[in-house]
Amino acid sequence: MSAELARFQELLIEVLREETDPERALDRLRAHPDAAAHRDWLDRVEPRMLRVAAGLVRRWEVREG
Amino acid sequence: MSPRVGVSWMPTAGFRAAVEPVLETIEAVEQTVDQGFEGRLPASAEAVFTAFAEAGQLYGHAVGASVLSAGREDVFDAFLLALRRTRRPWVDLSDHYGFCTAGAQRFGAPLPLPRHPDVLAVGRERLVRLREAAGCPVGLENLALALCAQDALDQGPMVAELLQAVDGFVHLDLHNLWCQLHNFELDADVLLASWPLERVWRVHVSGGSFVDDIRRDTHDHRVPDEVWALLRTVLPRLPACRALILEQLPSALLTEADQQGYREDLALLRAVRDEVCGVG
């Protein structure tokens, strides 16, 4: 169960750092099998707030390598 | 017992200049524990932390535990190791609700998650390990960021469920709460009722900024009137509150005017505490 959640968290971060358009980010997340358990939540997510989250990810991320 | 009035201590010259004239009035200090992981802190910060620890008024705050992360066990293990190595006699230790490590990312801004049993299971397990490494009670600070109104309303109940595993405390950031009230046009009574206020041991007051009419917890401005009003409303409902902490980024304390404003906010925090709690 935590492996499934870990995959979802990784997906969320990767999509947020890659997509500048929040609607496209939401579409990608909804379509991905690793987000299947959280589709109801994704349906409630507001694009304007997802844009904020994406900005935060890009501003503060520290990555390997 | 009335809550102590204190500051989130930043190991920088600008912060030091801001607090130096009012050092004697500070009743509690919050240490951002991650700042001590990479090397030595300035001697002035070491002296302050030692003095407040000896007085039983040093509070720990972390930013890197990532309590809701399901992966990157290696990063969490390294965090716990560093915490053990640099441990001080904190009254208690908080970190943020949310997750900030996953995949290739080993640090970042905390992000919210849906209310889901897997999230709760992961968080409970990490909180138990965090408490063991910290050697003191642990708690969670509310996050400003919510991705929808339901996220904001779910956060309090989720934190309450998570904290049951460690008999932990809520670290209530009033500016973060106000961000959610503004961003989702929520009713303050409704949002406050979703939080276990009897578990609040520590409060943050801070400032922030608007970006496209979205309120953000940027900690780069003085405490706004709305947060002072919220403090007056909520403080009488926090019977277990031990400390009221003023939080501001050192990058926003570079000019004499900023530093004076910070001192005025600290004085106002004390005045509100005295007024609401009948001190003095």
Entry keywords:
heterodimer, A: 65 residues, mainly alpha, 4 helices, globular, B: 280 residues, alpha/beta, eight-stranded parallel β-barrel
What features would you describe in this structure?
The complex is a heterodimer of chains A (65) and B (280). With 65 residues, chain A is mainly alpha-helical. Chain A has one domain (3-64). Chain A has helices spanning 2-18, 22-31, 39-44, 47-60, and one strand at residues 62-63. Chain B has nine helices and eleven strands. Chain B has an eight-stranded parallel barrel, surrounded by six helices. Chain B has a two-stranded antiparallel ribbon with strand order 9-10. In chain B, helix 1 (13-19) crosses helix 9. The longest helix of chain B is centred in the C-terminal third of the chain and has 22 residues, at 256-277. Chain B is globular and about 50 Å long. The model of chain B has no long low-confidence stretch (mean pLDDT 96). Classes of the chains: A mainly alpha (65), B alpha/beta (280). Chains A and B meet through helix 1, helix 3, helix 4 and strand 1 of A and strand 5, helix 4 and helix 5 of B. Strand 1 of chain A pairs antiparallel with strand 5 of chain B, so a sheet runs across the interface.
